[in-house]
Amino acid sequence: MIKHPHTVTFTLNGELKTFITRPDEKLLDLLRREGYKGTKYGCGQGTCGACTVLMDGRAVYACLLFAMQAENRNVRTIESVGTHEKPSEFQQELIDGAAVQCGFCIPGMIMSAEALMQAEEVYPDDIVREYMDGNLCRCTGYEKIWGALRRVLDRREAAGPKTK
Amino acid sequence: MSLEQTKNFKQVNHSVRKVDAVQLALGKPSYVADFAPRDALIVKMLWSPHPHAKIVSVDVSAAEKMPGVKAVLWHGNVPRIAHCTAGQGFPEPSPYDTFMFDVKVRFVGDRVAAVAAETEEQAKAALAKIKVVYEKLTPVFSIDEAMADGAPIIHDEPEAHVPIPIPYEPKKNLVARVGCEAGDFEKGMQEADFTFDDTYETPYAQHCPIEPYVSLAQIDSAGRIVITTSTQVPFHCRRIVAQTLGIPVQKIRVIKPRIGGGFGSKQEILLEDVVAMFALRTGRPCFWQFTREENFRTGRTRHPIRVRIRTGIKKDGTITAIGMDCWNNTGAYGGHGLTVVSCCGSKVLPLYRCENIHFLGKVYYTNLPVGGAYRGFGATQAFFAMESTMDKMAEAIGMDPLKLRQLNHIKSGEGSPVFAALGEGKEGVPMTVGSCALGECITKGAAEIGWQNRADWRTKTGRYRRGLGMACLMQGSSIPHIDMGGASIKMNEDGSFNLLVGATDLGTGSDTVLAQIAAEELATTTDKMIVYSSDTDMTPFDVGAYASSTTYLSGEAARKAAADAKRQILHTGAEMLNLPEDQVVCKDAHVQSKDGQHKVSYGDISCYSLYSKNQYQIIGTASHVTHKSPPPFAAHFAEIEVDTWTGIVKVLKYVSTIDCGTAINPALCEGQTEGGTLNGISYALTEQYLFKNGRMTNASFTDYHIFSMRDRAPIKAILVPSYEDTGPFGAKSVSEICINGPAPVFGNAIYNATGARLNEFPFTPEKVLEAIRAVKQ
Question: What ipTM was predicted for this assembly?
Fold first, then answer.
């Protein structure tokens, strides 16, 4: 019955898309109803990080942002990272390193790590902790997630500065 | 079998990849909320704002007329059937004191009325239109108030009862009483050179799985209710929903998809009855997900317990008496009240040899949030008292606390009168300890932390003071003669197998562990297992994921089912090879002659059995009931630094050793140990419920802090192998024990750093500072 539906247009995982929305709809809710189920609801208060997505390369809480705030932005979700055939480097380390327990926090962790790797050239522990601190995990004690991430970052550092 | 032979294992005792790791890392739809159809109605609940009140009237007429509203439920339009929300063995050792909706509210966050509407906004708007008149009653906010003469009666409904014969006196707010005596406690106290009498308190806490409670109910084409839910107990869920709605079990199918963590919180039926009732009323899919705030307020919690511990010790380190009195605050409803307090005794007292034991546990209702199962389950609370006391006793007799533990801890071949005396709602099962590597846990942990450098607190000066602390722990593995798990395994043309188990993987990795066990038994590889678990229509029964039971109990069911299938494979393989059955063996996914000259692959055997000759489905099935509950053992150590100006406790290093028998999947066992330990560290240092008039004032991750990546303490998990003859390939349990350590370890370490002994936690800076100041005076 909505006569003048609001729309929002943004780049989602590399494709320009337009969605009907409401001014009060959260980005998380829009993403999930449109089938991007990898982005999770954990708290709705911007405190657990299960809904982390990238907006113009920065990790943001999709549960706090209104969908319309994504207008003209570049949004990336976990669905843009890795496939069954070729998981991303971090995903592979998480899988091989037994770092995925219940897995509910993992997509958010991966998106925060993506933001870290996009933005930084070197990865000292305190910087890494800063990027990852917004993603809570209750299963792992972070040990194996940290180890998996550290292995990826150490390899990247050893490979030298980014070429792109 | 012995420890030596574990070297020959090809699937178990190897860190194979978790079977669901890839799909979860890719973020593929896996959890309950991911399966909610777009046309699902959204359920919202009106919660009680009062800790204790009679509902005088409820008027839902305006709410029912609100846009998008499809149904409203309240006590006036649902069956009134007393039940227990705790998913336990049946009949439950917990009171039937809960109704789908009641005429009374008993805590802030109790159910009043629910709405199902097209959208969440519409559901919320409708809730605001429900008119409720309450008559406020005097609330009960502590065990002391609950026990007092003339205390307000929280459960005055006539239906309240326990379905088994155990003490239950709701008119006195008494939920349960359990005790045991061995030897002569008073005599033991008299024989001691030193006696101790201290009281310890443990706080409320929430499990905080990152996935909140969430359930979805749909009516399928045949008219049955399909409940997809985040549960640790799918089969108990089916039974309890059937009971609560007054419909046959046959009408319900419960599916557990991937679960975003549980830790005990989801051993409870808190949403499923409501979504099922709404689905029946509306014919529509109905979806209900708790907010984080609801998860804190209405979700289950760790029972706060007061433990008075009295002990006697001789100068030579002989413990002459241990007496433990526990008062358990179960909150507004009594599920798990008795069993948690029983475990205060049964999972703690046997750890140290002592002839004279007294144990008494009492459980009381209050108008506070409801206690439930939480990893550690009573042992967490009582070990804080026990292990603090061990350090006090050691100091009194001038002995290294490590040595006192070495001197007294239970060893292989030894029993305890407590095993037989304390069960879960009935007497326990007599047991002698089989595998026990606690001695090695202690020495390995001590070496790792540098225990030899431990110095008396009186030698320490300066603002920052370091301290070392330790604790020894045990738990159980399953509930003997009560828990049952079933498994079946079916062979496919390519030599793959469908492993169907009732056991419930809630993120622990049990699907993987059970697949490894089945693969080991079948002499194939874990990647040949297609695991499907916890679907009441499709898999055999299992009690579910609790009591540290899955690997030990359900693992043995999986092993026996695999052995059953293996017999069939050998039979058909022998037929194909024209050899007698006793001349063939299973090896590397083949049946072969003993000399290996003749062989046939599992794939060919399956094809033959399905399509060629003497056809039948190769399918094995088995159930398992345990006859003992072999304890895993652990020794925990930590080095901390206390800032004596601020009271801030910093964890420098934490060492978490564990003897879980054969580690079926060592990496997953480490993960369990690291995760449970950090949860325990977070509980010991920061987590607690704060209340104002019974209302939790810190119901968010902002105000209820759980440890993050930055707070993370460096944890070193050390698996110390032993071989438990009664478990699958030597395995015991791993999941719960690790959470019990940090509170006593830090309590002891703070004492070792500063001389301040804290009898309650979390060890917040304020509390630590106050205790330090008390030492100085």
Answer: 0.97
